Target: Methyl-accepting chemotaxis protein
Amino acid sequence: MEDVNKQGHNSEVIVERQEKSVQQLHQVFLDINTSTDDMVLKVMDVGEKSKEVQNAVNILNDAMRQIAAVTQETSAGSQEVASSTEQPTANIEQVSTMTNRVADMGMNLQRLMGQFKY
Model:
């Protein structure tokens, strides 16, 4: 009888240990499940952040294209201004040359008139 009691007690101990192991295993699976859920949320957050970064990069690229276009327009305008400045400069040089010629002609005329006696 003592053997039967001993076996019964041993069986109870074994069942308690198994029950405790099952509870511990259940808790491990719950922890794994929670960790997996957290990981999924973090991966989704990283995906959203990546989309935000991509949108910011696209906005920057558009701004850079606009800046390049404005720079090209400004460059073309500067070339136009330079061209339109060249013509008046050439005209001023011509006027200056003609003024110098008239002055030379005036001096020649004075010299020639100086040869006449009054």
Summary: The chain has a mean pLDDT of 84. The helical segments are 2-115.
